[in-house]
Amino acid sequence: MIKIHTKTFIGAALTAALVMTAPALAQQGWNEGGGEQDEALTLTPNLENGIEVYEVCAACHLYEGWGQTDGTFPQLAGQHKNVTIKQLADIRALNRDNPTMYPFALPESIGGAQSIADVAAYIATLPMNPEPGLGPGTDLELGKKLYVENCVRCHGENGEGIPEKYYPRIQGQHYNYLIRQFEWIRDGKRRNANPDMVKQIQGFSDKDMSAVMDFVARQKPPAEDLGEPGWENPDFE
Prior knowledge:
By secondary structure, this protein is mainly α. The chain has two domains: 16-130, Orthogonal Bundle (Cytochrome Bc1 Complex, Chain D, domain 2); 140-225, Cytochrome Bc1 Complex, Chain D, domain 2. It has twelve helices and no strands. Helix 8 crosses helix 12.
């Protein structure tokens, strides 16, 4: 069992205003790669360093990686390594707007491409929350219909995603977080969104959005990927 000392947040002095005032890089396409993304994908992860790096993330996403059931912070546990690498690289390159997370994702806070590879691999090993935040549960049949018709090709039959294509695992994610991201993607507010998805969901009403995201939040990962209710991460005891 690895004991972790409190990590100094070297980049904590940076504020969200830095992101808002920094010149945004022009989006070169949804996933053309390059930069830290390509570099991190080629590196052999060091899980011990991944644990140390993850302590920075745990301040918001919790040591278990389960986030908040109210959707304030998403569940990270169990997310595909490739997806986490892409999203971290996009945030650091200002291709995805996340003023809250940006200061803590900088190289000054967590390290370079090797640290991205390390923490992404560690996150993928964490068991997922068996009790995610859910929606009202009133339109699940509609949600299932919309999911089958619009989402299966990229996110899989059960929301498991496709890591090789950087399509995220969305099963068991908190409903309120899913709603927020879906709305931003639909309304053109998330700059690193897959343009194919933007086109696919443009016609969704708010009712449709609520129904399909509620359905997704209720999709269960395989039993071996789930933690027990109340599980505490032993890496941080």
